[in-house]
């Protein structure tokens, strides 16, 4: 079984961190993984995206035109990638920064107003972890408990404060998915 | 050993360190810069030398100097930087100085762009600078090979006294995959030719100026013999489902993995496709292509260029089968695109 997930948004929204986190958890769950980031000009303020491949077998192509799933953090990314998601795939949207409904009718669509949820937390910058937590909880692409176990390893070298606030955001996303999705 | 996630550029740099490299001279350029950054962090801790030169020209001549003393030395860059280094590479080749050169390649000509490309194939495989010479060129296709080929590259460079290049698309430098780091440390080769102090022996001289025509011809013959020996011993390719293939795709680097995915898809649709992936670009693995040619309806060279390796494929096929081309510039084509275009080529053939 091979799954490919696209994460896309503005540079600075932590899009590459989302993919990086998922890739680490999948590797630590015994999967084959590949993480392909957009690079260059995108990192300096434009759009950023990355493609994560998770497989039970050796990965031939880490690239694709049509990922099975997409996690979209802003409107330009929805416009760019909505048409590319595999038929009957999954689309997860940060509806705080996407001011339209998706047009596709063949996708499983999950929306979360990330900014609104962040208002109740003490860290406005962990929107990526909110949506990632909700996404992993809903799809089970990796085991959610495994993801929680991996926090300190993945954020190795960061302050306890940083890890704690990211974990809190992640848990808030999980909670949202359980209640609303 | 445990698998760890590493960026291709970082894995290559760690591989170089594991291969005994303690000297790095370079000038940063996207998408290769993480190699310099990694070396800047690690080499001083190991008693090595990291130096960001004032230019690529300075960097390659520092490589020449360090290699002459017998040091395991490397430099890394991308297309525009590699162009600047060509004069020095020609000198390194004639002086028979071993070193590792890395091209994390991007599209040209000129400053071009920063997205992945394979359009430095001619520059890498034809020598690149002036005079009759070759360097060895290795093309990894995953992050583990970025690491392994750096280790192997130093061993080959020392064994043949030749510059060895690793050429990889920018994407391969930037992407992350799990790697297993080797535990063993390779032994350093004895270098009796090095200019490392001549107490109690005759001085060694490393020089590339030969004004006497006879001496110059002799030098070229010595180099040529070496290149023939490398051609006999070091050609490397990977094959996938070529035994019964009607159509064989030739592709290298990360692109070879994308092509493999397309071939698996087309096999499921009943098309007999196979893949030959050159691992050494020089020496080019022509025999495996030549041997397959009589049974094959068509070869298709897929490249991220306007068509360069296809010339080597044609030389290897030597007229026994048609050789067609599929190319892109500015990005690695997706498996879906390759599948679609291969299917069109094959269907056109059947009709």
What does this structure look like?
The complex is a heterodimer of chains A (181) and B (351). With 181 residues, chain A is α/β, with parallel strands linked by helices. Chain A has helices spanning 15-28, 75-81, 114-119, 127-139, 144-149, 151-154, 160-180; strands spanning 2-10, 32-37, 47-55, 69-72, 90-94, 108-112. Chain B is of the alpha/beta class and 351 residues long. Chain B contains 13 helices and 14 strands. Chain B has helices spanning 8-18, 33-42, 56-68, 79-84, 86-94, 121-125, 143-160, 170-174, 213-233, 254-268, 286-292, 309-317, 335-350; strands spanning 4-7, 23-26, 49-52, 73-77, 99-105, 136-138, 163-169, 176-179, 237-240, 247-250, 273-278, 280-282, 298-303, 323-327. Chain B has a seven-stranded mixed beta sheet with strand order 3-2-4-5-7-6-12, with helices on both faces. In chain B, strands 9-11-10-13-14 form a five-stranded mixed beta sheet, sandwiched between helices. A two-stranded antiparallel ribbon of chain B has the order 1-8. In chain B, α10 (254-268) links the parallel β10 (247-250) and β11 (273-278). The radius of gyration of chain B is 21 Å and the shape is globular. The chains are: A alpha/beta (181), B alpha/beta (351). Chains A and B meet through α1 and β2 of A and α8, β8, α10 and α13 of B.
């Amino acid at each position: 079984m091979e799954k490919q997930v696209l994460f896309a948004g503005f540079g600075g929204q932590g899009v590459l961190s989302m993919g990086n986190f998922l890739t680490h958890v999948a590797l630590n769950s015994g999967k084959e993984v590949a993480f392909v980031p957009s690079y260059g000009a995108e990192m300096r303020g434009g759009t950023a995206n990355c493609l994560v491949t998770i497989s039970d077998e050796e990965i031939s192509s880490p690239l694709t035109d049509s990922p099975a799933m997409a996690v979209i953090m802003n409107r330009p990314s929805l416009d760019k990638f909505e048409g590319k998601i595999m038929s009957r795939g999954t689309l997860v949207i940060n509806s705080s920064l996407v001011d339209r409904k998706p047009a596709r009718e063949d996708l499983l669509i999950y929306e979360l107003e990330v900014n609104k949820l962040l208002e109740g937390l003490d860290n406005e910058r962990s929107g990526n972890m909110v949506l990632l937590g909700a996404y992993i909880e809903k799809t089970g692409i990796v085991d959610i408990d495994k993801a929680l176990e991996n926090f300190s390893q993945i954020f190795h070298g960061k302050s306890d404060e940083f890890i704690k606030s990211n974990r809190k955001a992640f848990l808030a996303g999980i909670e949202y998915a359980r209640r609303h999705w | 050993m445990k698998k760890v996630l590493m960026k291709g550029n970082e894995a290559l740099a760690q591989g170089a360190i594991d291969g005994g490299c303690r000297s790095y001279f370079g000038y940063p350029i996207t998408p290769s810069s993480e190699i310099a950054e990694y070396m800047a962090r690690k080499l001083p801790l190991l008693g090595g030398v990291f130096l960001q030169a004032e230019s690529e020209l300075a960097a390659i001549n520092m490589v020449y100097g360090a290699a002459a003393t017998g040091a395991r030395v490397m430099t890394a860059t991308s297309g525009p930087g590699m162009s600047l280094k060509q004069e020095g590479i020609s000198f390194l080749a004639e002086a028979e100085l071993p070193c590792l050169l890395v091209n994390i390649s991007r599209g040209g000509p000129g400053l071009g762009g920063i997205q992945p490309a394979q359009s430095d194939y001619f520059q890498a495989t034809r020598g690149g600078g002036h005079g009759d010479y070759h360097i060895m060129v290795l093309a990894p296709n995953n992050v583990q090979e970025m690491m392994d080929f750096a280790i192997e590259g130093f061993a080959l460079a020392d064994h043949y006294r030749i510059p060895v290049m690793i050429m990889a698309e920018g994407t391969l430098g930037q992407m992350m995959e799990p790697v297993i780091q080797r535990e063993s440390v390779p032994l350093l080769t004895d270098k009796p030719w090095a200019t490392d102090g001549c107490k109690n022996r005759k001085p060694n001289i490393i020089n590339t100026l030969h004004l006497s025509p006879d001496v110059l011809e002799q030098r070229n013959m010595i180099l040529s013999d070496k290149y023939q020996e490398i051609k006999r011993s070091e050609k490397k390719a990977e094959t996938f489902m070529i035994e019964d293939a009607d159509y064989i795709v030739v592709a290298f680097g990360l692109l070879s993995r994308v092509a493999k995915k397309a071939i698996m898809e087309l096999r499921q649709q009943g098309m007999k496709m196979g893949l030959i992936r050159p691992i050494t670009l020089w020496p080019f693995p022509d025999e495996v292509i030549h041997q397959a040619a009589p049974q094959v309806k068509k070869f298709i060279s897929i490249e991220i260029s306007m068509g360069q390796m296809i010339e080597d494929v044609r030389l290897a096929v030597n007229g026994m089968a048609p050789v067609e081309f599929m190319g892109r510039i500015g990005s690695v084509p997706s498996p879906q695109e390759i599948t679609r275009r291969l299917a069109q080529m094959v269907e056109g053939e059947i009709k």
